[in-house]
């Protein structure tokens, strides 16, 4: 009988949650997608083909059991669907909002490949978990038994929080250290509210606190507390700092005022949403209002910046990317949303320098063309000589990606092993570093990546730490 509720993709078309009109949503930072209604979520879930080899599941970094919770949703078994979703994903309501499903689960859906339109997996995942919060099904962690061992986690982003959740469920005492005044990392300060409203993040952090996770905020390791001190206070340590150092563009005029890093710009905007005082916004440094804005970059961070500038009241917003639309790394869905809101994309364009002495007045743009493929298989951009022009701008946002900070130097930990890229060297299965009892997970190991990968790494690292804590040799030594 249950199977009759499924396989509806032949008769039911794909529908996504309604988007708020661009002319309305471009003036605020609320999420742009409306919720599915109960009946619509069940209807769209029933389109799943329940295929024997679920590519949606295998292409999800967390290997979420997507076909089963789609079936449960179609059958109205929402609490069971939530519990199954939560069993593999620490933050399903966050992944449902910000994962690039078009590149992961939905992009590999079997019925999408057959031309029927993918199951709207992300929207249903969001609906299931939002319903769970509304119904009170989400409870604080209550371990079966408390353990004496403690773990210190450096970094309160998605990787660190996912590990904290898993360790607390096993009864381990967990303390999370973070340099910011709120936990969440990029979930809190990097991703704009129109993609991820901040109460969604804060309720998860509250849940972790209520479950016994301790947070030490405004704590910059290496300045406020030493790395050695954290190691001394805990039986194991997980490094989950992420990568925050902006890539620089060494070009003439790059030191002029009005050229700002993407993360500084996004953090200022997100702090405003909390009601914080942000002097750099008030004085105009990180405020796009009334300015011609140019954002340089083609990833998801660049999309966040252009759409933030629109909402701040920029006169115009242009995004420069050195390749074409088909080769950009950011989500095509985000590009479409940005275009609807008034962003102008300038493809095959790269910055050569900047005009203006004390304050930026324009970007010197080089026209590009795509040449032979590079080692990754992508066509390499080549400069078209003599085609330079100046794009006027009073605010330039650099969204060229992120690199790791020099943690061995910052933390006075010269023996901490790093790669030639500056990321921490850790075993790809156990996430163990070269230091006994020290593990690393997320972007600080793999480089700037997706939130869902950080969650996976954090959960895996927590499992490895539990194995380490249980080692007889370590217990005997104590």
Automatic annotation (TrEMBL):
Keywords: 4Fe-4S, Iron, Iron-sulfur, Metal-binding, Oxidoreductase. Residues 151-458 form the FAD/NAD(P)-binding domain. It comes from the Bacteria. Residues 25-136 form the Dihydroprymidine dehydrogenase domain. InterPro entries: DPD_II, FAD/NAD-bd_sf, FAD/NAD-binding_dom, GltD-like, Helical_ferredxn. It holds the Pfam family Fer4_20. This is NAD(P)-dependent oxidoreductase. It comes from Ruixingdingia sedimenti.
